[in-house]
Amino acid sequence: MREATIAELRAWLAAPMLREVSEAIERLRRAPDVGRVAVMPDVHLGTDVCVGVALATSTAIYPQAVGGDIGCGMLAVAFDGDAGALADRGRATAVLAAIGGAVPACRRHRRAAIGVEEAIRAETLSAPALEAVRRGAGSLEFATLGGGNHFIELQADPEDRLWLMIHSGSRAVGPAIRDWHLEAATRVKHGLRVLDATTPAGKAYLHDADWARRFADASRRAMAEEVERAVGPLVGARLAWTSMIASDHNHVARERHHGVESWVHRKGAMPAGAGVAGVLPGSMGAASFHVEGRGEPEALSSSAHGAGRVMSRSAARHAVSERELRRQMAGVCYDERLAAALRDEAPSAYKDVRAVLRAQRELVRITRELRPLVTYKGV
Length: 379
Fold this sequence. Notes:
Elements: E1 8-11, H1 19-29, E2 34-44, E3 51-57, E4 60-61, E5 73-82, H2 89-102, H3 116-120, H4 127-141, E6 151-156, E7 161-168, H5 173-184, E8 186-187, E9 193-196, H6 200-235, E10 239-248, E11 250-257, E12 260-267, E13 269-271, E14 277-280, E15 288-293, E16 302-304, H7 313-319, H8 322-328, H9 353-359, E17 364-376
Parallel strand pairs: 1-2
Antiparallel strand pairs: 2-3, 3-12, 4-9, 5-7, 5-10, 6-7, 6-17, 8-9, 11-12, 13-16, 14-15, 15-17
């Protein structure tokens, strides 16, 4: 593992970084073995390591630079029907209710839980991580959405084709894996903890984190299948799986950049290799985009993963009233009974997704724009 130096830094910004964000990134640049740091235009303050950052190391593994929601990501797939089916407000409301009935926000009833082993045919986790999963988090939270900025949305593209978009992660599995492996990690400066990829402890984390990525991906696909069963009869369409785009934005992977094999950590940063398809959501009241990566080496072939927060959750709850949220969500069908709880997810709490895309023109090109029709969020 290399000694700490000052890592090379490149940034693609939609607005000047807040002082706290800049300071956190400077600390990360000085962490042992960090060779490169790339900052995405949706960057914002996060726990230990900012969200919207990619970094490269030679052998060091930083679980905090992946985060707890390992494998959190996006799935988009088109229906074989058009969005006109949701023009009727009553039908849109029925579709929203059907999604909520098919996909719980948190836990499933034990009798209806989907078994982890049956779901993804995973390799065995390291013993402590497997025990955390078997205590209930895995089987009970598989194919559940979660809260916060996770969502299921029905959207229309410019040809008025109906699309499904899902944003969710590894649920309780990811935090359990992160927390266990942090206990075995070595403390370095500024609260960071590091593992060595060449040691048994580092290899165990990498194995378990890869398992969590597959868990999250399988969970999103299972949710899409549940939505299709519930919504398909209401809109007269089925999912066209050949259109699927799948990507995640919290992971660590071995990649080659600048002629060097590195461990690339992404926390709230989407892979954007040349020709790689991705999904970049806006806020729940704004457009979302399908994109294609340009493979920019200075960005470690990465992209923003969304609009990015401009207000903390507490600040948004103070700044946005229920009435204001309803104004910002005009034209989008959502559960208005949850307006008070959803104020921290108001569109104004997020950056302008179009400004984010303009800031990263070197990183991706837009292939499709989508407007929101029905948005389901858990609280």
